[in-house]
Amino acid sequence: MNIAPYIEHTFLKQATTISDIENLCNEASEYGFAAVCVPPLYVKKAKEFLGNGEIKTATVIGFPFGYCAVEAKVAEIVLAVVDGADELDMVANISAIKNSDWTFIANEINTIMPIVKNKNKVLKVIIESGVLTDDEIIKCCDIYGAAGVDYVKTSTGFAEKGASIHAVRLIRGHLADSVKIKASGGIRSYSFAKELINAGANRLGCSAGVEIVKESNGKS
Fold this sequence. Notes:
Layout: E1 7-10, H1 18-31, E2 35-38, H2 43-50, E3 56-61, H3 70-83, E4 87-91, H4 94-98, H5 102-118, E5 122-126, H6 134-147, E6 151-153, H7 165-172, E7 180-184, H8 190-199, E8 203-206, H9 209-216
Parallel strand pairs: 1-2, 1-8, 2-3, 3-4, 4-5, 5-6, 6-7, 7-8
Helix pairs in contact: 1-2, 3-5, 5-6
């Protein structure tokens, strides 16, 4: 399997530097990854480093906890779009989900979706599946699927549990085919990456993309 087109090459550490982002973009170009995912501060630089190729620039919104005000997420989205972001990975309000405040969750996404779609950008909603029950994951799929998000994303990579085969299968089983899945969090081997794709993931967010591609050489 040519796994490179599934990979979103990611660098979201707190102490990320410009040189880290330049290296990330150079590797994405070398290996043919789908996108890079960078902190909001570095969207402009990533666009500059990537040039006019097909690799997309993604950034994070409300990251990593998701419990900031909807207005703050809207402001982050607007600024990211101005800076040139192609894709927006927004953390859902996990606290609201754990409180079963589904009205809040619906209002949040229904506030944000028109702004994103008006700018023709891609929205991925991070639900932090590792800290949710199956019922909470299913309810998220119902709400975000109805809202027309582009992707449901498993994890930020900052929680105690990242992507899992179970979560990807559960999400896939409760979304229309038009809504894609981005698996992220703890993806460090080709075998796990391939399992996630087979379970239904369309995109893999990981910082070990180069190692995964190298491992895949000679395998099918």
